[in-house]
Amino acid sequence: MLTMRKYHGLGNDYLVLSPAELAGPLGVADIRLICHRNYGVGSDGILLGPIMPGSEDFAAFCAEAGLNAADCAGVCCALRIYNPDGSEAEKSGNGLRIFSRWLHDRSLVGSAPFRLATLGGVVEVTIADPQQSITVAMGRATFWSDQIPVTGPRREVLNEELVLGGRTLRYCAASVGNPHCVVLWDGELSPAVAREYGPQLECAPCFPRRTNVQFMRVEDAHRVRIEIWERGAGYTLASGSSATAVAAVAMRLGYCQSPVTVSMPGGDLTVTAAADMMLRQTGPTALVCECRWFGRDGDQAF
Ligand SMILES: N[C@@H](CCC[C@H](N)C(=O)O)C(=O)O
């Protein structure tokens, strides 16, 4: 039996699961079942942590993430981030706020800034108010094709075109630790837009590791609106790494200046860019419930 807590950030919900609770490895089938909204608990993903410094798992995690001892100096712990399809994500903005809130709820961190290791790099977190205001320094955005990755000659992927279903889409690609494709959308924004084009872009051959997809409308110099299709999760109400990537694109193209408020169906996130281009996202978290998982009950397929 596993005890886990469910939280959400602007309607983007995650289950936090401690490795200490697990009897064995968490397999793809387990993740899919736990996240399933009919056959499982239901969530946009699983956060597996804390993975504590000094443990074998932490050493293996750092090797996989390409983090050396200097990168990890002073790191509080690491976490793994799973999508509902069982794939593993390098980073998640809402996931990092939620995991930080979980650490805070257990008195493992306080109001002093602390660092967390992800497969997409080390981030710094500051909790001003666990419910209303958690800030994550997400890192710097890159638009370079080999770092996202996007196929083809090495270039910054800005204002490129892709034809889908007879419609020409203009997009930029970025990585903030995980990959994003930001479509510059001039028409009416709706969930239907994300549901129609999102799945095709997520798996387009030019994104060898698939991609998260956002459809962006610029409202003014400090506000954009987006609809989101997440890699491995599908349509979601909010996404912190998406908001960060979108703000980076809007600033890079000269449409916006810091701070940028990113409006999503689930609510707003504020993204700032410092002089050194460090991107920080600030937003809320909410505790939903604690539940006990009894594992597979019979041979249910879905
Ligand atoms: N919801 C997240 C993003 C989660 C990971 C993403 N689906 C991926 O595969 O990269 C967020 O808040 O950033």
From TrEMBL:
Its EC number is 5.1.1.7. It is found in: Cytoplasm. Keywords: Amino-acid biosynthesis, Cytoplasm, Isomerase, Lysine biosynthesis. GO terms for biological process: lysine biosynthetic process via diaminopimelate. Substrate binds at N12, N83, G93, N94, N178, N212, E230, R231, G240, S241. Pathway: Amino-acid biosynthesis; L-lysine biosynthesis via DAP pathway; DL-2,6-diaminopimelate from LL-2,6-diaminopimelate: step 1/1. Homodimer. This is Diaminopimelate epimerase. It comes from Oligosphaera ethanolica. The gene is dapF.
